[in-house]
Amino acid sequence: MVVASIVRSVAMSRDMNDLQYLRGTSLLQGLKPWLRYLDANEHHKFLKLVLSDMGECALSVIREAERFDEAFVHSFCISTLEEYSVSRCQNFSRQVLSLLFPSKEAKTSLNLKIMMSVLKFVAGEFQNQQSSSRVRYAAV
């Protein structure tokens, strides 16, 4: 698909222009209503491909955070995390945290803000997952 190609080219690009990253995100948002017309297997494969590339974009933005506006870095990282399903958010959040914790700049306010947001998001996702498991168990 064209959107997947565009997101992949942004992920592979060396050009650090926040407009490119925003275009990729907005294309994905505009495409979401149309994804329901794909069968489940194709839908899953497409999202896996695009989210993998969006994750690479987010990691690039974090690595090069000094080139971007702090608000953009934080919002792009968190919006990418929100796109992941619960099972895949673990992997992406682990990548983000492993990138930020050992860095020399780990104590900057932006890095701390991203780390705290990622940890809060993951904790919330697991709490929601546990609640839905309890509801399913209670229904049985």
Concise structural overview:
With 140 residues, the protein is mainly alpha-helical. It has one domain. The protein contains 6 helices and no strands.
What does this protein look like?
The chain has one domain. Helices cover 81% and strands 0% of the residues. The protein is built from 6 helices and no strands. Helix 1 packs parallel to helix 3 (40-63), helix 3 runs parallel beside helix 5 (86-100) and helix 4 packs parallel to helix 6 (109-139). 21% of the residues are buried. The model is unreliable at 134-140 (pLDDT under 50).
Descriptive terms for the model:
mainly alpha, TPR_ESP1, globular, single chain, Separase-like TPR repeats region domain-containing protein, 140 residues
Structural class of the helices, strands and pairings? Answer: mainly alpha
**SSE pattern:** HHHHHH
Amino- and carboxy-terminal Cα gap: 41 Å
Give the beta-strand count. Answer: 0
Strand content: under 5%
- Radius of gyration computed on alpha carbons: 16 Å
Shape: globular
Q: Round the mean pLDDT to the nearest integer and report it.
A: 76
Amount of helix: over 70%
How many helices? The count is: 6
* Unreliable runs: 134-140
Main sheet record: none
Domain module tally: 1
Pfam families: TPR_ESP1 (PF25110)
InterPro entries: TPR_ESP1
Protein name: Separase-like TPR repeats region domain-containing protein
Domain Separase-like TPR repeats region: 2-90
